[in-house]
Design brief:
Strand order of the largest sheet of chain B: 3-2-1-4-5
Oligomer: heterodimer
Bound molecules: iron/sulfur cluster
CATH superfamily of one domain in chain A: HypD, alpha/beta domain 2
Number of helices of chain B: 1
Helix content of chain B: 25-40%
Radius of gyration of chain B: 18 Å
Largest sheet of chain A: 5 strands, parallel
Strand content of chain B: 35-45%
Structural class of chain B: alpha+beta
Largest sheet of chain B: 5 strands, antiparallel
Order of helices and strands of chain A: HEHHEHHEHHEHEHEHEHHEHEHEEHHHHH
Distance between the termini of chain A: 29 Å
Number of strands of chain B: 5
Shape of chain B: elongated
Structural class of chain A: alpha/beta
Strand content of chain A: 15-25%
Largest interface: A-B, 59 and 37 residues
Distance between the termini of chain B: 41 Å
Chain lengths: ~350, ~80
């Protein structure tokens, strides 16, 4: 439909970046950006120009904790119908995944959209639980079905918010980040404002970017310009989709149903106000309240799969091929950690396209 | 997960009472039902669709201008560089 793959322009941008000779480390927080960077070989081209773009915690499946997966597994074993998105299905909790539990004979379904899950609930008398993951892009859809929910339906929320995780990365200070490429479709919902405190408080340049190769290159260029000028602000490269105020209708829908709480992410300590749970007035749709007694059987602590470095990968500290299991013990067919399962996980992407 | 793809709204559902706002959308030749509760879409609009929901209406003008704007920006940026 549109042409965003103009090679000539791409070359020009890369040349200019090379001339600037900046030596920067940028970070993005979106698996789809990682896909673009690796698929089109942008990572290596940018490296030649002295710019490294590291992936952060941008894969909702990957940052879901083993505990949350164990909750879904337990509910499936207690004879609920558990539905979730395809990528989540095969991610192991402490040992098993929902796929394994389905193979044991329990009722686990993969759905494309939460509306499929509603239709499922309408057709059965059994309790249906939607294991609901995703950042701001996905949450409004989950929230919007609340009015039509059948009573045998509930949500096991693993929704999370991106800006608090970006702040956490900076505050943890494990490595220097010169600027952020902000996620285009999260920003479609939230707009520019929720990122502004990060630029102000931490003097951090940010550019909201789309997903074509040129979108990403232009965003890198815009960040380079901010850095040269000594600026730190939120700019928007993806104006064809992202409005400065975002999608206000979606924001309202989300705010009506969900509220933030302090939440742990895989590889991170608890991040303040970074998770979303159902508000009290929707408690009958909240699987954690509805099945509180059953879920109380779960331990609080679950270990990461042995040897898996997903936690460090999600904090941008190591690349997948620095994990000793990468491509040997851990492959998309036999994944050890979530970063190999999800098509947005850095390990999966690296193996799929055969380079970093 | 946060992938969203553009589609053209071709038909808006009649909407029975209490029913959700549905539309038929064309994904480059493949037709699929989508939910348009989160946007005020009209027939003919291009929308970005994520997990079955339209999350935004694409700004066609912006979309067409994007490449031109990029080119312009590159030029402008190099001017400031030289001055700085
Ligand atoms: S290669 Fe596998 S085990 Fe290693 S970090 Fe990635 S997902 Fe974890």
């Amino acid at each position: 439909m549109f042409r965003y793959r103009n090679e000539e322009l791409a070359k020009q941008i890369l040349e200019k970046l090379k001339d600037l000779n900046l030596n920067l480390r940028l970070m993005h927080v979106c698996g789809t950006h990682q896909d673009t960077l690796v698929r089109f070989g942008l990572n290596s081209m940018l490296k030649e120009a002295g710019i490294e773009v590291r992936p952060g915690p941008g894969c909702p499946v990957c940052v879901t904790t083993a505990k949350e997966i164990e909750e879904a597994i337990l509910l499936a074993r207690k004879e609920k119908v558990v539905a979730t998105f395809g990528d989540m299905f095969r991610v192991p909790g402490e040992r098993l995944s929902l796929a394994d539990v389905k193979a044991e004979g329990f009722d686990v379904r993969v759905v494309y959209s939460i509306t499929d899950c509603i239709s499922l609930a309408e057709k059965t008398n059994k309790d249906v639980v939607f294991f609901s993951i995703g950042f701001e892009t996905t949450t409004p859809a989950t929230a919007s079905v609340i009015s039509t929910r059948p009573t045998n339906f509930s949500i096991l929320s693993a929704h999370r918010l991106i800006p608090p995780a970006m702040e956490a990365l900076i505050r943890m200070g494990e490595m220097k980040i010169d600027g952020f490429i902000n996620p285009g479709h999260v920003s479609t919902i939230i707009g520019e404002r929720p990122y502004e405190f990060i630029s102000k408080r931490y003097k951090m340049p940010q550019v909201i970017a789309g997903f074509e190769p040129l979108d990403v290159l232009i965003a890198v260029y815009m960040l380079a310009m901010q850095i040269i000028r000594g600026e730190a602000k939120v700019e928007n490269e993806y104006k064809r989709v992202v409005r400065p105020e975002g999608n206000e209708k979606a924001q309202q829908t989300m705010a009506e149903v969900f509220e933030p709480f302090d939440c742990s992410w895989r590889g991170f300590p608890v991040i303040p106000s970074s998770g979303l749970r159902l508000k009290k007035k929707f408690e009958k749709y909240d699987a954690r309240r509805r099945y509180e007694d059953e879920l109380s059987a779960l331990d609080n602590e679950y270990k990461e799969p042995e040897g898996c470095r997903c936690g460090e990968i999600l904090r941008g500290l190591v690349y997948p091929d620095e994990c000793p299991l990468f491509g040997k013990v851990c492959t998309p067919r036999h994944p050890v950690g979530p970063c190999m399962v999800s098509r947005e996980g850095s390990c999966n992407i690296m193996l799929r396209y055969g380079e970093s | 997960m946060c992938l969203a793809i553009p589609a053209k709204v071709v038909e808006i559902g009649k909407g029975k009472e209490g029913a959700r706002a549905k539309a038929k959308a064309d994904f480059g030749g493949v037709s699929r039902e989508i939910d348009i509760s989160l946007v005020d879409a009209k027939v003919g609009d291009y929308v970005m669709v994520h997990a079955g929901f339209a999350i935004e209406i694409m700004d066609e003008h912006e979309a067409k201008e994007t490449i031109e704007l990029w080119k312009e920006m590159l030029e402008k940026c190099s001017d400031t560089e030289m001055k700085s």
